[in-house]
Amino acid sequence: MNLKQLLSLGLGCTVAGLAAPLSLRAETTIPDACKTGGFAIGCQAYTFNRFTVFEAIEKTAQAGGKVIEFYPGQKLSREEPNVTWDHNASPETIRKVKDKLAAAKVTAVNYGVVGIPKDEAEARKIFAFARTLGLYAVTTESVEAIDTIEKLVKEYDIKVGFHNHPKRADDPGYRMWDPNYVVSLVKNRDARIGASADSGHWVRSNLNPVDCLRVLKGRIVSSHLKDLNEMGPGAHDMPFGTGVSDIPGLLNELKAQGFAGNIAIEYEYHWDNSTPEVGQCIGFVRGYGAARKW
Fold first, then answer.
1. CA-based R_g, the chain, Å
2. Is the model's pLDDT at 80 over the cut of 60?
């Protein structure tokens, strides 16, 4: 039995490898127990940004998700609405969130989009928080901090994905929408630095998401997978299989690339009652993966 197998014994749907000392740590992975239809699929908590962290965890479970991707700034709970959830959280707050996750049988695997400072001491707070939660990855757009990011990725064995928002007509200097730019950014860096691929924002940028995934082959850390009602900047989310995105094609490409990260449903529509539609998205992946015997 190898070290990775030993570390994953008894952990259930938790990220393996983070409990061991640095010199003994196996590669950080998301166990198969976290997967639905062949993928570790769940929610980006921003889907439920009109609710609290605790409610986001509950709604993720109700939708059939086994994993969650947190974002900074969400209120903790209805009981403690003045407590904010982010990488500055107190040990007591972290323990409460861990207990809530355990009760809901949901595993935290990612955190972002979060700004990572160039200052190592400040950036370290984010990586230490990620280690404490047992996260697989952190999501950012902090290009200017890539040297600091690379150093801490190696130290903590936590992946970092650069996230893409849509092309900005009023900001030609914004380049993250272009997967070719992301490749140029990460190609000579540690292999644990890559892309947090948002297929919906590619559609809003009038790009073909399957082609974008192919450009990023081997560097996809995580994905915000989306189906939208139309191409272009005004598009909104739809349940998988009902919009213009080729969701089967995207899933096939991710699987062909050996993608091992998390898929987060970031559903930015019907904000007050999106759980049924999020559930349809997860159900689509469950059924499609079963049909493909993933």
1. 18
2. yes
Are the beta carbons of 242 and 211 closer than 8 angstroms?
A: no
CA angle 268, 274, 275 (to 5 degrees): 130
Distance (Å, whole) CA 185 – CA 166 = 18
pLDDT value for 13: 80
Say how far apart CA 87 and CA 285 lie, in whole Å. Answer: 31
Place of tokens 């990220």: 15
Q: Which CATH superfamily is domain 35-289 in?
A: Divalent-metal-dependent TIM barrel enzymes (3.20.20.150)
Q: Where are the alpha helices (DSSP H) in 63-208?
A: 91-104, 120-133, 146-156, 179-186, 199-204
Contact 13, 61 (CB under 8 A): no
Query: How much of the chain exceeds pLDDT 70, in percent?
Result: 91
Distance CA 227, CA 111 (A): 22
Note the pLDDT of residue 1: 37
248-290 pLDDT tens trace: 999 999 999 999 999 999 999 999 999 999 999 999 999 999 9
